[in-house]
Amino acid sequence: MKFKSINSNFLTVSSWTLVSRVLGFVRDITMAALLGTGPLAEAFLIAFSLPNMFRRFFAEGALNMAFVPLFTKKLNSGKDVAHNFANETFVILGTILLLLTILAQVFMPFLVLAMASGFWGDQRFDQATDLGRITFSYIFFISLAALISGLLNATGKFMVAAAAPILLNIMLIASMAVALYLDVEVSLALAIAVPISGIMQLTLVWFAAKNIGFKLTLKLPKLTPDVKKLMIIAMPAALAGGVVQINLLVGRQIASGTEGAIAWLSYADRLYQLPLGVVGIAVGIVLLPELSRRLTANDLNGAKKAFNKSTEFALSLTIPASIALIIIPTELITTLFQRGIFDQNDTKYTAMALTVYGMGLPAFVLQKVLQPIYFAREDTKTPFKYALISMAINAIIAIGLEPRIGFMSAAIATSIAGWSMLILLWIGAGKFEDAIKFDDTIFKKILIIFCSSIIMGFCLFVSKNYFEILFQHPMMKYLGLLIIISIGLITYFFSKFILKFLFEK
After folding, report:
1. How far apart (Å, rounded) are the C-alpha atoms in residues 145 and 191?
2. How far apart are CA 241 and CA 97, in angstroms?
3. Most exposed residue of 78, 101, 274, 416, measured as fewest CB within 10 angstroms of its CB?
4. What does the alpha-carbon distance between residue 143 and residue 112 come to, in Å, rounded to a whole number?
5. Do 434 and 445 fall within a single domain?
6. pTM for this one?
C-alpha cells in the first residue's frame, strides 16, 4: 500500500465510524426518552456492558493487537500461509469463546455483582441477570467478527470492518420501535437485538474476507506453534485489557451505589466516545497494520511518516472536540437527551461527568497513536506494566474521592488514569526513537491546532451565553446547538487557515 493512502484510510474508517456513532446517538436518545435513568435502563446498560467488556478483553484489546503484526508477517510468506494462520486462530478463539459463553450463563449472578454490587437487594439485580444471559452470547459473534476485521485491516480493506458496527445500532433502534408497536418491554427487546446484531456483523465480515480469498472454516482446534506464539504475545495484551476493564469495574461499582449514576456516566461516555471513536480508534486501526508493514520491510522513514501523520490527524480533531465538551456540556446533553423521563437533574449530572471526560479525551486518543508503536514490534509486555500502574492510580483516586464527591470520583479517576497511561507510553516509547521522531513541521502544526482551538473555545463560551435563551424552549434548543457548533467550526477552521498563512509567511 502506498504511503499516501494512509490519509484515505483514516478518512474511510473515520467516516464509517462517524455514521455508526451518529446512529448510536439516535439509539441512546431514544433509550433515554423511553427508559430514562431508571432501574430498567441501568439493568440493560450493565447487561450490555458484560459482553462488551469481555470482547475488549479477548478480541479488540488483546488478540487483535497481537494478531495483526503476526498476520502481516505471514502475508509476506504467502497468502496460503497467512490463511492457515488466520483459520487456526479463528478456531481457537471460537472454542475459547464458546466455553466462556456457557460458563457465563451459569455464573451470571456473580458477574452482575462484580459489575454493580449496588444492585444487590433490589429489582435491578434480577433484571440485569436475566438480560445479561440474553446479551452475553454477543461476545461469541462479535469477537470472531473483530478477529476477521483485523484480517481485513491488515490486507488494507478497511471499509467493511469499519461499517459493520452500524448493524448493531440499526438493530437496537429497530428493536425499540418493534417493542413500542407490540407493547413489549423495551429493555427485553434491546437485549434480544444484541446477539442478533452480532450474528449479522460476523456474517458481513466473513463474506468480505471470503471475497478476498480468506474463507475461514470451523474445524477441530489445534494448538500449532504459530498459535502458541500468538497466545504468548497476546497474553500481556489480554492482561492489559483486563486492567482497563478493572478500571471500568471500579467506576461502575462506585456509580452503582447512587441511583441513576450508572446511566449518567454511560450517557456521558457515549458523547466523548464520538471523537474517541472517529479519531482515536480510526488512528489505531489504520496505524497498526501500516507500522507492521513498514517495520517488517525495515522502512523506518515510512514508519516515522506514518507516526507523524497519525499524530497530526489525531490532534487536529481531538483538541477542539475536547474544548467543546468542556465548554458546552450542558447544551449538548440538554439538546440530545433531555426529553421524556430524562429530566433536568439527569442533564446536570451527565454534563458534569462529560466535562471531566472531555479533559481526558486527548489522552485517550493519543494512547491510540502510541500503543501501535509497541504492538507493531510485538511488545505487549510494556503496555501491560503501564496499564497496571494506571489501574492503581484509577483505584486510589476513585475509591479515595468517593466519600467526598460520590459518583464523580469515577469520572475524575478515569481521566487522570488516562493521562498517566499516556505519559508512561510516551516515556517508554523512547526506546523506539527511530520510529517516533517528529519531523521539522509537526511542532508548528501542533501550535496552530492549539491556538485555533483556544480561539474556538472563546467563541463557544461567548455564543453559548448569548444564545442561552434558546435552550429554554424544547424546539428552539436544536437551533441553538446548531448555531453554537457552526460558530465553533467556522472559527476553528478559519483561525487555522489564518495562522497557517501567517506561520508560512
Report:
1. 19
2. 16
3. 78
4. 21
5. no
6. 0.75
Read off the pLDDT band of 51 (50, 70, 90).
Answer: confident
**Quick one: CA dihedral 223, 227, 232, 238, positive or negative?**
negative
Residues 399 and 490 grouped into a single domain:
no
Q: For the ranges 29-43, 239-253, 366-380, 415-429, which has the lowest average pLDDT?
A: 239-253
Residues 6+ positions from 250 with CB-CB distance below 8 Å: 394, 395, 398, 399, 410, 413
Same domain, residue pair 180 and 156 = yes
Cell matching residue 336: 440530545
Q: How confident is the model at residue 244 (pLDDT cuts 50, 70, 90)?
A: low
Residue in the block written with cell 442561552? 468
Are residues 208 and 186 part of one domain? yes
Distance CA 234, CA 66 (A): 5
Cell of 309: 501523520
Nine cell digits for residue 92: 481457537
Model confidence at 197, in pLDDT bands (50, 70, 90)?
A: very high
Q: Which three cell numbers stand for residue 460?
A: 463557544
Q: Do residue 90 and residue 28 come from a single domain?
A: yes
Cα distances (angstroms) measured from residue 445 to each of 6, 73, 387, 500, 503: 18, 34, 30, 8, 9
- Rounded CA-CA distance 63/145 in Å is 12
The three grid cell numbers given for residue 355, joined into one nine-digit string:
466535562
The three three-digit cell numbers of residue 425, written as one number: 507510553
263 touches 346 (CB < 8 A): yes
The three three-digit cell numbers of residue 357, written as one number: 471526560
Question: By residue range, what is the domain housing residue 379?
Answer: 5-439
Q: How many whole angstroms separate alpha carbon 291 and alpha carbon 242?
A: 25
- Please give the C-alpha separations between residue 317 and each of 66, 89, 481, 496, 504, in angstroms, as whole numbers: 28, 36, 19, 12, 21
Number of H helices and E strands in the chain, helices first, is 21, 0
Three-class secondary structure assignment of 32-82: HHHHCCCHHHHHHHHHHHHHHHHHHHHHHHHHHHHHHHHHHHHHHHCHHHH
Summarised one tens digit per residue, pLDDT across range 344-385 is 888 899 999 999 999 999 998 888 888 878 877 778 788 888
Using CA atoms, how far apart are residues 69 and 71, in angstroms rounded to an integer? Answer: 6
Higher pLDDT, 315 or 122: 315
Three-state DSSP class for residue 259:
coil
* DSSP code of residue 380: -
- Asked if residues 97 and 143 have their Cβ atoms less than 8 Å apart, the reply is yes
Cell readout for 2 is 502506498
| Packing angle of the helix pair 282-296, 5-35 (nearest 10 deg) | 150
Q: What are phi and psi of 433, to 5 degrees?
A: -55, -30
